Structure to design on (253 residues):
């Protein structure tokens, strides 16, 4: 009787934990961008946020969604990509509006110019949307043609998660070049590490495609390397600390 009563209690608790973990996966990646969005909107200054983060995350998550058509994985991971794409488009919209309003140069650049010197530096949000739709259409058509190839599908999945996993590398390299982590938020790096660790454990426990687990581990290693830089450059400074403020980091959870 007691065993039956305990089971009656544990089953819904297990379900609640599963729902909570799934919800954290879906929305956890966009949480760091909420204060960033509010800060840009409040200060009307987007210089501290690189829109290339939006580019990388849009590419990575579009590829992940296409990968889902070739190899179905956990629904929360699919929804995570959809939510992230929406979030990045909102960030792009705000950053573009703020930058254009503060720009003294009256010459406008657009996607249809096909000028690589101004790629991802256009004057209207609609140009970014056109670029994203073009990329989605081209990659979607290629995926449709090669969907029966297991090798192509697996490479597509690896490319999707590997692109996202590389987001921390520019920060790592910049710290190495500057021999300093001044201007970088240690709390943010700790959030990266905890978020990436949670994602990797989630991938392993839910038997997600191996690409997710491998690149999740890579993200954790990059985060740990950045934390080691914080320790190294704080206690063993390589050069006098500069007082020039660095741009905000561009890593996503």
């Amino acid at each position: 009787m007691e065993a039956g009563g305990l089971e009656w209690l544990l089953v819904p608790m297990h379900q609640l934990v599963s729902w909570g973990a799934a919800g954290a996966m879906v929305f956890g990646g966009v949480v760091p961008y909420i204060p960033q969005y509010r800060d840009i909107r409040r200060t009307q200054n987007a210089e501290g946020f690189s829109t290339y983060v939006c580019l990388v995350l849009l590419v990575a998550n579009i590829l992940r969604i296409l990968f889902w058509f070739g190899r179905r994985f956990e629904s929360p991971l699919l929804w995570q990509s959809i939510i992230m794409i929406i979030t990045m488009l909102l960030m792009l919209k705000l950053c573009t509006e703020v930058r254009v309003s503060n720009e003294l140069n009256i010459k406008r650049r657009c996607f249809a110019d096909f000028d690589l010197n101004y790629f991802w530096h256009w004057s209207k949000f609609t140009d970014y949307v056109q670029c994203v739709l073009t990329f989605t259409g081209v990659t979607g058509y290629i995926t449709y043609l090669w969907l029966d190839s297991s090798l192509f599908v697996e490479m597509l999945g690896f490319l999707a998660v590997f692109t996202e996993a590389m987001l921390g590398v520019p920060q790592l390299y910049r710290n190495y070049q500057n021999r300093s982590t001044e201007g970088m938020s240690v709390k943010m790096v700790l959030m990266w590490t905890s978020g990436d660790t949670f994602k990797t454990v989630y991938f392993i426990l839910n038997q997600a495609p191996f690409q997710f687990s491998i690149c999740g581990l890579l993200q954790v290693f990059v985060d740990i390397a950045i934390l080691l830089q914080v320790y190294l450059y704080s206690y063993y400074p390589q050069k006098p600390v500069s007082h020039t403020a660095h741009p905000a980091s561009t890593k996503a959870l």
User: Anything to note?
Assistant: The CA atoms of residues 74 and 191 lie 23 Å apart.
